[in-house]
Amino acid sequence: MMNEQLQVISAIQECKAEKLPCALATVIKVKGSAYRKEGAKMLIDADGGTVGLISGGCLEADVAEVAKEVIKTKTPIIKTYHLDEEEVWGLGLGCPGTVFIYIEPLMYTPQNIEEVDECAKAIAAF
Amino acid sequence: MQKQLLPFDAWLEAIDQQQPAVLMTITEASSSQKNKRVCYLENQPSIGSFHDQVLEAAAKSIAQEKLGQSNPKPESLLLQDENKLDVGVFFDVFVPSPTLMVFGAGHDAIPVVKYAAECGMKTIVVDQRSLYNNEERFPHAERIIARPENFTECIRLTNRTYIVVMNHHIEKDKQTLKFALSSQAPYIGVLGPKSRRIKILDQLYLEGCHFTNQDLQRIHSPIGLDIGAVSSEEIAISIVAEVIAVRTRHKGGFLQGAEFIHQSP
């Protein structure tokens, strides 16, 4: 795992420690050429602040907006980006291809941590 | 929703402890299956369940296969559940960072260790001279102060240890090479020209060390990619690039004219 991606993992641990809600975006499928491959991650906080890269810089802002919604709805979604070089060339987007991004809420709020503990206890008892 | 946190937390813990793990997430399926997760761990029971034995068994066997590969890639795959319906599963893979172990703490080792650390490798410098092998010179690295005769007791080599031999001392290089060849290390780069490599190997042969062709194929000497490197920094780039190429099983030439940038695994 690259250093930059390990920073994403540290950022998740920080959110967990501080019990802050956040969302994780992960590249799960790439068709054609892409700057970032499957497994690339970006963490987004409730204000849209980000850590990590999931593309060469052309998708981060949009994914961060979607992630803010995901934090509110608490439901994971898959966002698909078709990046046609012919169409977007003029915009300087150097990442042609289709990219599928899984965006999920990581709800480390105090209440949820209790619920998880309950769940863990139930499993341990089983 | 809440159940998802458990496999995900197990995954985070595995990364924290540098343990290999595969996080499997159902991304395409009926709504009842979607987002279910299993964290597959090496030599430990998995965490979480897909609540579908056929699907889970198929996914776990893929996860196991991935952890057996030297450089496994995360990917999405279509599997079938017990009702023979297609289910999309994303396999995220964590394996500990490869280690670059540099023997010789000379000035030319400094950029090698620096660039390797910047590329995310764990770095270790081995040299008995604490005057050279110190934190000031190698702030990113773990340092082992040891003489070649103590290597066996002080140093652990694995199949994820990439070795660079640059002692600038032919006797030490010989002893280091002998030690390295006795391990599972996939890459053993030795600084110096071909004639020096031959001299070292001839010496080892005379001392009764016989190595198989497979052993010898791991030796890269002259070390590095052919980029015409001259300065320590350029040579370091050439060495670190070669280590990356060996790890990803790429050839290391120009991409110009290539059909693909990345090889399929």
Automatic annotation (TrEMBL), chain A:
<dbReference type="InterPro" id="IPR052698">
    <property type="entry name" value="MoCofactor_Util/Proc"/>
</dbReference>
<feature type="domain" description="XdhC- CoxI">
    <location>
        <begin position="17"/>
        <end position="81"/>
    </location>
</feature>
<dbReference type="InterPro" id="IPR003777">
    <property type="entry name" value="XdhC_CoxI"/>
</dbReference>
<protein>
    <submittedName>
        <fullName>XdhC family protein</fullName>
    </submittedName>
</protein>
<dbReference type="Pfam" id="PF02625">
    <property type="entry name" value="XdhC_CoxI"/>
</dbReference>
Automatic annotation (TrEMBL), chain B:
<dbReference type="InterPro" id="IPR027051">
    <property type="entry name" value="XdhC_Rossmann_dom"/>
</dbReference>
<dbReference type="Pfam" id="PF13478">
    <property type="entry name" value="XdhC_C"/>
</dbReference>
<dbReference type="InterPro" id="IPR052698">
    <property type="entry name" value="MoCofactor_Util/Proc"/>
</dbReference>
<protein>
    <submittedName>
        <fullName>XdhC family protein</fullName>
    </submittedName>
</protein>
<feature type="domain" description="XdhC Rossmann">
    <location>
        <begin position="100"/>
        <end position="243"/>
    </location>
</feature>
